[in-house]
Design a protein that fits this description.
The chain is mostly helical. Among the domains are: 1-70; 72-143, no CATH class. Helices cover 67% and strands 0% of the residues.
Length: 300
Amino acid sequence: MILGLDDEEFAILEDLVGQNQIIEAKKMLGKAICARGSFIESAISLAENDIEGALTSLEECMNRSRTPSTRNPVLEARARMLRGLCRSGLGEKIEASADLRWAMDRLNAIDSGSEAHGIAILNVAAWHRQNGEPVMALATHSEIARENTHVPEIVAVSRQRVAAIHADLGDLAGSIRHHWTAWEIARDTGMSVIAEASCLHIIDLGLANVDAQSERMSVRIENSRPEPRKDPTEPSIHPSDLKDVTEWIVPRVLKDVSGDQRLDMQIVVEALHILDSDLIERFQGIKDSIQDALVLAALQ
């Protein structure tokens, strides 16, 4: 039985739960009598879809985090944030909002710029979006700047979500710009899922208007400034920018060409045709393995 967890043990247990190795986590944890142990218990309960059990453990965690001898304000804020997510899942909108906002403000005060603070901001922004408040979601995301304030991984996720909100609002020019930022950061930090998703969004949006007179994306990002909500906008992309993203995604798309509805391959092949790129030959060479009829038709 572990009565207390040091930093290394706590990190190992968080990794085990994150990797869904629940049996191993339970074996290592035992019945913890400490704030960190209660936090891990709550995470295990959530992995097992036991929300009520998670809420009980989170309450224990917060109470133990306030004890003078074991005071841990960062862990208390993380527990409060997790409780907010649980309450949101239960439909307790007011209580969820209060917990998520409290955690974000608290972490901003005591651990600003940390991974936990960044996640708290993302959670509050997501809550606003889910509750039909896209402008408030954008305002919350604005606390995560492109540089200096948060780790790149947090910034990449934030920019991708901001891009989606701009698309919801009809600002497609803003959407493609934010997807570009998300793609560059995620690409450079090895976040393949984020990078590939934003890359495909860039291609999909850009195909509506490939224009050699269009500003390069780097210039748009450099000159971008916060603006009030505006009328819908249309996307555009310079051919050189389209070439960059398309050439980057091609080998990743080609890793697996199975499936009869491959929207990703459809837009990549369309982009290669527009660019008159020799990379189209890589698709031509594996036509027998491609199952999507629209992709095959485009390769004729």
